[in-house]
Amino acid sequence: MKAVFVLCLLLSATSLYGAGLEEANTRDEADVYASGTLVGASNAQTIYAFDVKFAYRQYKTHLPGSSFKSKWYLQARPLLEYVTNQGTSTSPDYVNLGGEVGLFRQFRRGGPFRPDSVEIVFNPRAEFDRSVSTRNFVVATFARLPFPNYPDRPSPVNLHTSLELGMESGHNYSNVLQPQGSGTIARAYGSLSLLFWHCGIDPDTHARKQCEAGKRNLELKYEFRAPLQQEIFTQTLQDPAVQFLSSKPRHYFEAGVRIPVFSYFALHPQYKWGSLPPAFSFLDHQYTLNLEVSAKRKK
Questions:
Q1: Residue 47 — pLDDT band, cuts 50, 70, 90?
Q2: Model's pTM, two decimal places?
């Protein structure tokens, strides 16, 4: 019921802002997003879950003191995220309260293997798990490099790639094993997203035309974190779960197919494996069927 309530709120938001929003193709692209989920996992009973993201609106301007022909922009936006899985501790639940601020520059398209823009992003945020036993303050600093659609000619299958590389630093104020916290957080961070979609044949010309990323798509995402200091890790393959401090690398992978239902709404079957901050609760092969609503700011 909570998920349905959140979905209705976000749908109302799209109506309220009207012409300011349009449909989004992925969660990363969306400024307003929510999904309700029916979950079945190898180590959990069937339960419901939901995922909420709010990043509206974005502020963007030329760098102060520069002309309107400046190649660099200053941009900022709020970034609030709440992911929870009611009824199980095996899912990487988290609350992020923060925002993104940074520099942006657009490039001319120079080929399929060159980024078409670069963002230097600073993402300060407070991180909590569902029980609020793990409390972090983290600043992520990274470069975001989106690569243009590939190939650059009409093709039945197309690919858009996004790469993020940087560091996450901050402080852990408490965790399950250390009520006083483990102290300094320092992690190497990397993320790779692949978005595949299909371009059909024009019914009038009977020829294939190049098209932008479609609402019906396949998305693969991988995240890597390498802690330089020991942090909490929760191994959920056993019952009860085993929690320990470790500096071992943390991996996370998800894959999903997005199937539009009607405006702003889609079905999203999804697979997840791995662990995410703040508590790094290891997720062992979770399969979900999401009903999602998403929107992004019109360009």
A1: low
A2: 0.85
Number of domains forming the structure of the chain = 1
Q: Give the residues across from 54 on adjacent strands.
A: 32, 80
- Domain around 160: 55-283
The DSSP-derived string for the chain is: -HHHHHHHHHHHHHHHHGGGEEE-SSTTT-SEEEEEEEEEETTEEEEEEEEEEE----EEEEPTT--TT-SEEEEEEEEEEEEEETT-SSS--EEEEEEEEEEEEE-----TTS-SEEEEEEEEEEEE-TTS-SEEEEEEEEEEEEEEEESSS--SEEEEEEEEEEEEEEEEEE-SS-TT--EEEEEEEEEEEEEEEE--B-TTT-SB---PPPSSEEEEEEEEEEESS-EEEEE-SSSSPEEEEE---EEEEEEEEEEEEETTEEEEEEEEEE--TTTTBPEEEEEEEEEEEEEEE--
Altogether, the residues listed in the chain come to a count of 299
pLDDT tens-digit readout, 10-36: 555 545 555 577 888 888 888 888 887
> pLDDT value at position 157?
87
